[in-house]
Amino acid sequence: MSEIKIDWKGHVKKYQAAMEELNLDFCVLTRVKSITYLAGCFVPWKSTILLPRQGEGEPILFTVLLDVERVKEEGKLETQGWGPMKGFEWQKKIKKAAKKMGAYNPKGDGPRIGVELGLDICVTGQMLTFTEANLLKKVFPGCKLIDFNPKTEEIQLIKEPEEIAMLRKASEITDVGQTAVKEVFMQREDGKIFTENEIAGIGTLAMRKAGSNYEWTFTGNEEIGSGYRASWTFNGCTPATNKKVLEGESLLVDLHSEYGCYLGDLSHNYILGSCPKELKEFNDVYEQLCYTLLDNMKPGISFNECYQEVRKVADKSGYANDLFFGLGHGIGCIGNESYPIVLPGKDWGEMTFKENMVEIAAVVFNRPGLGGLRLEAPTLVTKNKAEMLPKTPIEVDYV
Asked: Which of 73, 131, 204, 396 is the most buried (most CB within 10 A)?
């Protein structure tokens, strides 16, 4: 499908190097972002990778029986099936494989097992569950479960050149989707009214034709919000509905693509017909916020510093309470969303932008009863500046 060659074996070696740092006997990885990053294919079912130390065998992907043959064909790892039936239990399959590859000696001390722990804001995160942890403890007596999740985040934070190329291609596809949406708007007959769902379909069809395989978001595929549905306070989720889009109201079109397991995410804003003066002024402030954000996504600038510069624009314009405090989230392969979140404060604020991060530049700017706008665009942090990967302009489109 793609001429861009991702070094999937190199990804495995990165994880195994981190295992050595933590002195792990093996890993049981459940996060979707780890599974995609190591397996190199779309794995939608509850799945696990058993990852041994380097030189102690090949990693094994366990996925649900009904999808094994496809994953074998499309993925890069040995694949076995599991299911809730005798002989195919998840924990027993893992134990048997760990013994066979020499990663576990029943007569020795309990193994140190790397697992991914924590709480992800995305339902697709798939951190190790309480039930899974107890099953591992049952089949590996005396084991110690060591949190590998910080290593997962660290490894995937900085993107390789090939990953950046994939993300760039995925962004080109979202540009195609936005262009198709705008063209349909411009060619509409007088009095033609679209629903949010129709707009979602227009964008999706164009992106599928351009090579996208998957509308990856868990928030309703393409997110289309208009009027009051675009302007709720802190409004960051607008799954499309059958609401009709009226002239003169905010319309945000948030499209999602996938190319070679890497993701595109582009939100753009439209006004159909004439725009009320107060809303036009609000839109102008939004554009200033976006450009200020991009100006401050540079290596060495902290998330606190970035937020404060953007907040100054909102304060000066009298819209401080309408700006959501989160200004970005991560992006990468399937499952790789949220980390790091560009937030001020003690938890995230001291984190700095680093060269070759690809972060979603995000501005959520809403005033109920007036309008709502959203920027989401994959943005590459280079040595000297931030480069938006999609080419769709930031400015609101008045159609």
From this structure: 396
| Cα gap 83→102, rounded to integer Å | 24
Least Cα distance to 7 among 217, 159, 189 occurs for 159
Return the C-alpha torsion angle 116, 118, 123, 128, nearest 10.
40
The verdict on whether omega for the bond into residue 276 sits within 30 degrees of 0, i.e. cis, is no
Instruction: Convert 312-346 to b/e letters by CB count within 10 Å (16 or more is b).
Output: ebbeebebeebbeebbbbbbbbbbbbbbbbbbbee
Buried b (16+ CB within 10 A) or exposed e, 74-110: ebbbebbbbbeeeeeebbebbbebbeebebbeeeeee
Task: Please provide residue 284's backbone torsions phi and psi, each rounded to the nearest 5 degrees.
Answer: -65, -40
Phi–psi pair at 266, nearest 5 degrees: -135, 120
Give the chain's residues under pLDDT 50: 1
Residue in the block written with tokens 């709720």? 232
* Locus of tokens 């980390």: 339
Q: What is the pLDDT of residues 97-156, one digit of tens each?
A: 999 999 988 888 899 999 999 998 888 899 999 999 999 999 999 999 999 999 999 999
CA angle at 144 for the pair 141 and 148, rounded to the nearest 5°:
140
- Give me the domains of the chain, ranges plus CATH numbers: 8-156 (3.40.350.10), 158-398 (3.90.230.10)
Burial class (CB in 10 A: 0-12, 13-18, 19+), 160: middle
Alpha carbons within 13 angstroms on the beta-carbon side of residue 357 total 28
Structure tokens at 161: 């050149």
